[in-house]
């Protein structure tokens, strides 16, 4: 009997709870804590499109601590409606577990519980718990708002739609199709930093870009824009689905979103005239003369497919017998490409050097393949020949071209002048003494000189002596 009464009481309690829920669904909804947050006075706390502004933080003079029930905070509630903020109401909430306040805004029910209030000479701060009956998936933005609601606008998820169209869905090989890409914001919020990405289209060649507006700062709600328009040339027969176009964007709260084309157009290309690749090469050098061993010539070879089909297994050979060829992409004297698309270029840069003087010829040859109905065909192409002259060191080369008499006559003259000056110097040193006068004779020499003079004046004496 005792347990029966207990069970009956429990059933009554359950029925009362269910009745309360049926009478007031909002009251029965579970309140979930969104965040415990500290907000300065005059700032606000934003949940989706609702802002709770902290108008004043009040600390009672007799309060024992920041959590004293006498401390309180004054709030103003704002809701974003019709592109503007609308005041929902004001309230004062004291600190404590039993002093929370409720309000309804933005289609949801909120509860504010103040945990502490502090005050400084200039401002104050409020720590509070904000709860709501919204599920976690419904809360798309929370954050502190400096200077309150007046400093922000409402936020939400923009709805951007991407559409891709062609002017015709049936062409022949060699014909052009025009592709247009639109973006449209069908949501109630602006899309910001919109970036459109359109992938390269296979089996077609881009011939012309008419509109390229793939970076949009703001795509307003209920607005649309043409972001891409271009013309493609069909190069292979078949039925092809165009590549999809994607778009990325953010909302006012900097939350990221993306979208892509829901469907892409299909184009049928009928066989037309036979398409084939056509490789053309242009070879340019910065000079055609250089010195052996120390000289260098820079070359640039541009390879372009001017045809309407892809060139496959492309081999480029640089031929310069007797010269040294170096380059980043070179394997020996060759470069290999798996394919070269129509209207595409390949640029090869290389350097020429020489060990010996002489005359050399530089050229380039290309070989490539392409499929046809009769199997794989091979094509070839070559450049014009360019002649390069290599000389020995310039100083030696110049000297070798001067006649022998132009070099040796000045040498002979210089040698004769030097010999003459040397002889004059020896004679001068012999004749002159220390002071530059004639040298003085010794006593014996003077006597001999006197005798000679006497003998010269007396010939008879000279004969007698003999």
Write the layout of secondary structure elements.
Elements: H1 2-23, H2 25-28, E1 32-40, E2 44-47, E3 50-58, E4 72-81, E5 84-94, E6 101-105, E7 108-119, E8 124-132, E9 142-145, E10 160-166, E11 170-172, E12 176-185, E13 191-198, E14 204-212, E15 215-219, E16 223-234, E17 238-241, E18 245-250, E19 256-260, E20 266-270, E21 279-285, E22 289-291, E23 297-305, E24 311-319, E25 324-326, E26 334-340, E27 345-353, E28 358-372, E29 375-382, E30 386-391, H3 394-400, H4 404-431, H5 443-457, H6 459-465
What does this structure look like?
This protein has 466 residues and is α+β, with helices and mostly antiparallel strands. The chain has three domains: 29-151, Tick-borne Encephalitis virus Glycoprotein, domain 1, CATH 2.60.98; 160-270, Immunoglobulin-like, CATH 2.60.40.10; 279-395, Immunoglobulins (Immunoglobulin-like, Sandwich), CATH 2.60.40. Helices cover 18% and strands 48% of the residues. It has helices at residues 2-23, 25-28, 394-400, 404-431, 443-457, 459-465, and strands spanning 32-40, 44-47, 50-58, 72-81, 84-94, 101-105, 108-119, 124-132, 142-145, 160-166, 170-172, 176-185, 191-198, 204-212, 215-219, 223-234, 238-241, 245-250, 256-260, 266-270, 279-285, 289-291, 297-305, 311-319, 324-326, 334-340, 345-353, 358-372, 375-382, 386-391. Strand 6 and strand 7 (108-119) form a beta hairpin. The radius of gyration is 51 Å and the shape is elongated. It starts with a helix and ends with a helix. The model is unreliable at 12-29 and 460-466 (pLDDT under 50).
């Amino acid at each position: 009997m005792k347990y029966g009464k207990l069970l009956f009481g429990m059933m009554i309690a359950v029925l009362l709870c269910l009745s309360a829920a049926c009478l007031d669904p909002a009251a029965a909804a579970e309140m979930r804590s969104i965040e415990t947050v500290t907000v300065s006075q005059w700032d606000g706390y934003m949940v989706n499109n609702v802002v709770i502004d902290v108008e004043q933080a009040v600390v009672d003079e007799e309060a024992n601590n920041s959590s004293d029930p006498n401390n309180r905070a004054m709030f103003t509630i704002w809701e974003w409606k019709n592109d503007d903020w609308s005041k929902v109401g004001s309230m004062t909430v004291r600190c404590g577990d039993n002093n929370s306040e409720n309000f309804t805004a933005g289609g949801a029910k909120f509860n504010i519980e103040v945990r502490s209030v502090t005050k400084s000479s200039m401002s104050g701060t409020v720590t509070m718990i904000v709860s709501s009956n919204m599920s976690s998936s419904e809360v798309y933005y929370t954050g502190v708002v400096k200077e309150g609601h007046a400093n922000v606008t409402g936020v939400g998820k923009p709805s951007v739609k991407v559409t891709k169209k062609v002017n015709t869905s049936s062409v022949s090989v060699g014909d052009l199709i025009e592709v247009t890409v639109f973006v449209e914001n069908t949501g109630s919020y602006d899309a910001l930093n919109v970036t459109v990405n359109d992938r390269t289209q296979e089996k077609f060649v881009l011939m012309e870009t008419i509109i390229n507006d793939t970076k949009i700062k703001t795509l307003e709600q209920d607005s649309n824009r043409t972001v891409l328009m271009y013309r493609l040339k069909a190069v292979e027969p078949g039925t092809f689905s165009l590549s999809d176009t994607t778009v990325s964007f953010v909302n006012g709260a900097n939350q990221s979103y993306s979208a892509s084309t829901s469907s892409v157009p299909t184009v049928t290309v009928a066989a037309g005239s036979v398409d084939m690749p056509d490789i053309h090469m242009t070879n340019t050098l910065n000079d055609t003369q250089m010195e052996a061993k120390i000289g260098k010539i820079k070359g640039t070879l541009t390879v372009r497919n001017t045809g309407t089909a892809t060139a496959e297994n492309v081999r480029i050979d640089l031929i310069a017998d007797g010269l040294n060829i170096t380059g980043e992409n070179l394997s020996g004297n060759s470069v290999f490409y798996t394919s070269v698309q129509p209207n595409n270029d390949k640029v090869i840069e290389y350097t020429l050097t020489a060990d010996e003087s002489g005359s050399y010829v530089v050229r380039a040859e290309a070989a490539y393949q392409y499929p046809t109905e009769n199997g794989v065909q091979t094509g070839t192409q070559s450049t014009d020949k360019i002649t390069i002259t290599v000389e020995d060191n310039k100083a030696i080369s110049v000297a070798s071209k001067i006649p022998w008499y132009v070099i040796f006559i000045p040498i002979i003259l210089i040698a004769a002048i030097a010999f003459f000056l040397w002889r004059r110097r020896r004679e001068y040193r012999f004749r002159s003494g220390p002071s530059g006068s004639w040298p003085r004779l010794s006593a014996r020499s003077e006597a001999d000189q006197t005798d000679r003079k006497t003998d010269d004046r007396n010939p008879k004496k000279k004969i007698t002596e003999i």
